[in-house]
Amino acid sequence: MQADPFNRNCGSRKVLDRIGDRWSVLIVLTLAGGDKRYGELAERVDGISQKMLTQTLRGLERDGIVTRTVHASVPPRVDYALTDLGRSLLDLVAGLEAWATTHLVEVEAARARYDARG
Which part of the chain is the HTH hxlR-type domain (predicted)? Predict the structure, then answer.
């Protein structure tokens, strides 16, 4: 069977859901700079709740995009890092970030025009 993300039952749609999620994109971009602890991720990704950060990290780990390493220390230290598969996403998500920042003014102007139509 060929992957078809337009088919709701195809696993490729779940992959798109994971990598297209705003929190996943921001976490992958944050991990592009190297391993991070949970607190560092929470601090960098403004607005993400602890619950959502935990859920997103678990999903990324399940999908093989992120690794979670627990270090035997007191208190326990947990680091998150991109896998090779996760690093293969960097150009894609960096492109999304670049597009969003480059075209922010245009998008905001379009929103204002749309909202003004009443």
Answer: 10-108
